[in-house]
Amino acid sequence: MDRLNKLVQGLTSWYYANNCPNRQKIRDKKVTIPDGLEQSLVEAFLPLLNKNSKEKVNYKKGKEKDERTLVVASDFHIPFVDKEVLALFTSFLYEFKPDELILNGNINDCTSFSTHPKIRELGNAFTTGKEEREYWFSVAKCLRQALPESKIVYVGSQCHEGWIDKWASLSPILLADENYTIKNWFKLDDFGIEFVPETYDPIGNKELIITHGTIARGKSGGSAMAEVEYSGTSIIQGHTHKLSQVYKTNEIGEYVGIECGCLCERKPWYVLKGKRRMMDWQQGFVIVNIKGNSFSTQLVPIIRDSKDKPYFWIGKKQYK
């Protein structure tokens, strides 16, 4: 039974990460089936997965605890999320069951709203912003089903999700329409996801600030140190697509600054100096343990094996 449950969990993560594919997409090889599984087996599970995707997500608001565990992840850039990494990450959430999941900005790319120069094949990829948003709905449902009793917080950013506000500001009609806000555009209430505009303070006394961030230095660690010095407290930031953990000590105390990496594709989907190339990005996330007013952090890098398949370690346990 445990083996069957694990299979269903893995297939569910794969199904939502690939935007709920049907048999035709699988047979046309538009999606890659999970390693070690026969195509016929995956197709046999499709009716069950499809039924589950149409059911309303039920969740229970978890109780506030003095001692709790958070997972902080950033920069999915949906629909340009790394599908293998997303499937692995959601399977991990099914098992790990943190008290809170913090989606730390740039979760959605908002390419339909933005003026960022993109590679040519994206020109016809999304005809409307609503079409692009459908990818988010499938991911949000998967995250909520993985964590039915956990608190999920979506931290807004101004560099990608912020395009919604910028676009709406072009028209007084849209500006007055509450549907064109980050919270309402992504229908966060429908998934029981709390929205905070820029920063999340999980302890409540600014001992630790979780923010997407606006500083982007060229080297890993530079942005985190700059954010610590700017904010005057410990921070966990996204934005840079890099992994780092740095420290600063002064007369008041010791502070930590963390860049929590990304879960998006490792090649950019926009034009950069005339090329689409592998970037100096690292995939990963952060685990935070909180007890009272104190906390500890664990940076979790997502590693690649010889076949470029993702995996990571939590203590002695390997997830792959």
Any descriptors?
globular; 320 residues; Purple Acid Phosphatase, chain A, domain 2; single chain; alpha/beta; 14 strands; 5-stranded mixed beta sheet; 6-stranded mixed beta sheet
Short description:
With 320 residues, the protein is α/β, with parallel strands linked by helices.
Account of the 3D structure:
Helix 5 (129-146) links the parallel strand 2 and strand 3 (151-155). The model has no long low-confidence stretch (mean pLDDT 85). The chain folds into two domains: 1-55, no CATH class; 58-319, 4-Layer Sandwich (Purple Acid Phosphatase, chain A, domain 2), CATH 3.60.21. The chain is of the alpha/beta class and 320 residues long. The protein has a six-stranded mixed beta sheet, with no helix packed on it. A five-stranded mixed beta sheet has the order 5-6-7-9-8, covered by helices on one side. The chain has a three-stranded antiparallel beta sheet with strand order 12-13-14, with helices on one face. Helix content is 29%, strand content 22%. The protein contains nine helices and 14 strands. Helix 1 (2-17) crosses helix 3.
Q: Secondary-structure blueprint of this entry?
A:
Layout: H1 2-17, H2 23-27, H3 39-54, E1 67-73, H4 83-96, E2 100-104, H5 129-146, E3 151-155, H6 163-168, H7 172-175, H8 182-185, E4 193-196, E5 199-200, E6 208-211, H9 222-231, E7 234-237, E8 243-249, E9 254-260, E10 284-291, E11 294-301, E12 303-304, E13 310-314, E14 317-319
Parallel strand pairs: 1-2, 2-3, 3-4, 6-7, 7-9
Antiparallel strand pairs: 1-10, 5-6, 8-9, 10-11, 12-13, 13-14
Helix pairs in contact: 1-3, 1-4, 1-5, 4-5
